[in-house]
Automatic annotation (TrEMBL), chains A, B:
One Gene Ontology biological process: aerobic electron transport chain
Keyword Coiled coil recorded: no
Cofactor(s) listed: FAD
Annotated ranges, domain External alternative NADH-ubiquinone oxidoreductase-like C-terminal: 353-405
Taxonomic source organism: Bradyrhizobium sediminis
Keywords in alphabetical order: FAD, Flavoprotein, Membrane, Oxidoreductase, Transmembrane, Transmembrane helix
Residue stretches spanning the membrane: 380-407
Family statement: Belongs to the NADH dehydrogenase family.
Official protein name in the record: NAD(P)/FAD-dependent oxidoreductase
Amino acid sequence: MTPEQPRSSDRHHVVIVGAGFGGLEATYRLAGAPVRITLLDRRNHHLFQPLLYQVATASLATSEIAWPIRYLLRGRPEVTTLFATVSGVDVQGKRVLLDDGDSLPYDTLILATGVRHAYFGHDEWEPFAPGLKTLEDATTLRRRILVAFERAERETDPQRRAALLTFVIVGAGPTGVELAGTIAELAKDTLPPDFRNIDTRSTRVVLIEAGPRVLAGFPDDLSAYAQRSLESLGVEVMLNEAVTECSADGVVYGGKTLQARTLIWAAGVRASPAAEWLGAPHDRAGRLQVNPDLTVSGHPDIFAIGDTVAIDGPDGKPVPGIAPAAKQQGRYVAQTIKARLRGETLGPFRYRHSGSLAQIGKHKAVIDFGRFKLRGAIAWWIWGIAHIYFLIGLRNRLSVAISWLWIHARDQRAARLITQGSSKVAR
Amino acid sequence: MTPEQPRSSDRHHVVIVGAGFGGLEATYRLAGAPVRITLLDRRNHHLFQPLLYQVATASLATSEIAWPIRYLLRGRPEVTTLFATVSGVDVQGKRVLLDDGDSLPYDTLILATGVRHAYFGHDEWEPFAPGLKTLEDATTLRRRILVAFERAERETDPQRRAALLTFVIVGAGPTGVELAGTIAELAKDTLPPDFRNIDTRSTRVVLIEAGPRVLAGFPDDLSAYAQRSLESLGVEVMLNEAVTECSADGVVYGGKTLQARTLIWAAGVRASPAAEWLGAPHDRAGRLQVNPDLTVSGHPDIFAIGDTVAIDGPDGKPVPGIAPAAKQQGRYVAQTIKARLRGETLGPFRYRHSGSLAQIGKHKAVIDFGRFKLRGAIAWWIWGIAHIYFLIGLRNRLSVAISWLWIHARDQRAARLITQGSSKVAR
């Protein structure tokens, strides 16, 4: 665009791995800098993870919360988007290694590779209690939830039918709370008129949490409110209970066995292997320990941001693994790179907590803005408007607004589809 | 609802296998009859197949053209919907056999089990040239099409890159024509600004047809118009060419090899195994040969309707395998069952051809209403309005209208998602 720029291949080359909230924000904020950028992701889409639980519960379609990464950057000729999987980093040669044998040189590297759910040494539980991080995770959960009701409709044995109509969510953070509330509403409001042999209102939704309260990241009173709201939706909240076994039959916790055919894991995460690629220090969850300027120790040309990083905020508490934190870090790193190219330096990264939000069913939410707290219907409206605001593009905003309108006005959920499995192969 | 009805289990039991256009229409039209109905399908959703090619080409989301079957019948307490796969029929015992060992008694049976795509004795071609009949087929094609562009962006060898940017569609019926036109527009209008290393406008879309013209079911002049329109979109139309080989490298036709990494099969269908279940006469494509009242010979209590049936219309030509034909047959069978329960009989089924429509790219269509024919932009508007009209529910009509508006106004396609495969596993 600007005529006097050097040939693009001579420019400082920033390689960004991961097009989540952090990686995408860094790419956006590097606009206008004298760099060329390569953005790598092993998916072709950026995912709006805060609403992923709504895909898992048939409320939203996959395409309503995902955008092709290269489409988002179509107006940025200096950005090349590559659909590729990173397998390591050659820090000496300054190259990113790809799983197909290719590699890519970098001048500056930004690792924004996120997390997966983790089973604390019990990976054998994953087939029975899948987690929720990707679109495929969401459509898998959606299939399992919907198939459980379908199979219950055909089951004549009361015990097996009860197990099919028991849904267990392990972990009562925002994802667990939001899943539990939405599944309860699906069973109580959306599905009853559609079934003949079962009363879906008899569905049990059990939320098991190892800690002493739900939404541990929120103030005590909002946690208590969230628990009461869940219980009024019919969710059974079990606190201070550690799950000791997940199997095809159900879960074991506190020595008790709960027969359930659908388990969902929302209890913990493990960072991507970025720390292994670099041989760099990390915490127990695999998160990279970074310098105050978000560079990796001994590698001033490598930044790490987002969920894959462990760093403390100004209040001494860990920066939470949420979208606004990743975006702040992406913005900070972009500014740091721009400053360096001008020969300047910036102060350390300072996290500013803007607030925490969680939805509890279709009419309630809790919001903690620090200075003020909100709960109930008004909080739900703020929650809804904020999420529509943060979606990308008018088309998806319209589409999600219509989907929510139908859920609220008619208890009709847009995407009750069982895919990747006919009745023959569906578990 | 009506107080004096007999206990529902004493009622005449109609079992309907398949909730496509025919099976669903029969269910709707039996409303008010003194029967109870069980509707079986191995999918949980009714699919609007005429727009399936738009899911395959990233224009529409899966949930925009599919509805949970039991939701559509929520207001009909005498209808039980079961998510189940039929494996046979015990005509002596009058029972439908399910693949899990269960069975279901019927008084009257309606088979509306449809077709799959067929390879004319070359089933080994299926992995290389998938067809398009289910939602999973559509998301598989979508993944292959989008991955081909992604891999071309990273490919440096010119020959391999050209093969990645060559898309071959085998069969120039409505599905083949609609796929070819839409892929050409995707490459020419939607994708160019998003790629840096390739010019997606250099994409080749090749439509191979064994017969002498495209859209063989339409009048000659509309076929010629459709071919010209496709060619103006850049589609290469090869007529009178039989494909003799499909492989990972491409296709062979007329002794020539065309290197292509993406092949799509739109060349033929084979009926579901309903004829095998009954040991009844069928044509070469496996379609049941039925009596003029759509009953199966020797089985007056078994009807067969829709694509799985071969029957001639009043003009002596075969009834086409399209949605309006299946719906007419579903309606006729419902009326026949009602008449029989009153002790009456109806005359034979008479097919009335209401018209044929096909879209060619986003601004043109051809319509053959028999008495009058239409082509071009006005035909496209009629095509679009007709398809939105036949969608079910205001929500999906709104949603599809918005999706089409964005395609037309901004060349932005709603669902450019590669799912069920990261860059690591995507072919």
